[in-house]
Write a structure and sequence with these properties.
233 residues, mainly alpha, 68% helix
């Protein structure tokens, strides 16, 4: 991306979706880029929740954008641009999944489960400047949660990502998936419980490694003590 285009995209980043859509219809490349930068994360997460593959999720998002931009003239604003793009992405992801294998029977998964519990919040990346050990631990926690989410049954996984990670409402999630709101609630409750069980098992085995003090921190401590003792070499 040229420096001029970068400035142009920055200028457009705060523009409302309706203006970006209009500019994109007129062939403004900066508007296309601004739309993608605004919605990339949600669309990637939705696709990733369905196919459980980083590379395939990226490919799905690309195909969804191509389809959406080719049909931008048909976007009437009856729903938000985010909703419209999310629906296209979800349809693309589910279509690919159906080609790969038969549709999963979900009736048994939708049974009510009153024992649902909250799960550990999805973690953010470690702040810039954090020590390497803390940053590594934070990354490992995130990978652990991502693996546990990947292992959820498809119906629970998609609902969990839409509700807990993307923070869509029950009604929005139900509309995307074409299921009743009560089904969304049930699947989310079951998904939370299964995720909590999986994380409890993994975390229990990791407790012996809690509060590490090695690597760079250990070296710094030893260096400071040797310096105070006049033994630093």
């Amino acid at each position: 991306m040229s420096s001029r285009e970068a400035v142009r995209t920055t200028d457009l980043s705060s523009r409302p979706d309706a203006e970006l859509v209009q500019r994109a219809r007129e062939g403004d490349g900066g508007a296309f880029r601004a739309i993608m930068q605004r919605h990339n994360r949600r669309l990637y997460r939705v696709a990733r929740a369905v196919v459980r593959s980083d590379s395939e999720a990226e490919d799905i998002v690309q195909e969804a954008y191509v389809h959406a931009f080719a049909n931008l003239g048909g976007f009437r604003g009856d729903s938000s641009l985010a909703t419209w793009l999310t629906r296209i992405t979800l349809n693309e992801a589910l279509g690919r999944l159906r080609k790969q294998r038969p549709t999963v029977e979900l009736a048994a998964l939708d049974l009510e489960d009153a024992g649902a519990q909250r799960v550990i919040p999805f973690p953010h990346m470690a702040a810039a400047g954090a020590d390497p050990e803390s940053a590594a631990a934070q990354r490992e926690i995130r990978r652990m949660i991502e693996r546990a989410i990947d292992d959820l049954p498809e119906a629970f996984r998609v609902v969990f990502v839409l509700r807990e990670i993307e923070e869509l409402s029950v009604e929005e999630t139900a509309a995307f998936l074409g299921v009743p709101p009560a089904t969304v609630k049930t699947r989310l409750h079951r998904g939370r419980r299964l995720l909590r069980q999986a994380l409890d098992e993994q975390l229990a085995s990791a407790l012996t490694d809690a509060f590490p003090f090695d690597g760079a921190r250990c070296t710094r401590m030893a260096d400071r003590i040797l310096d105070r003792l006049g033994l630093a070499g």
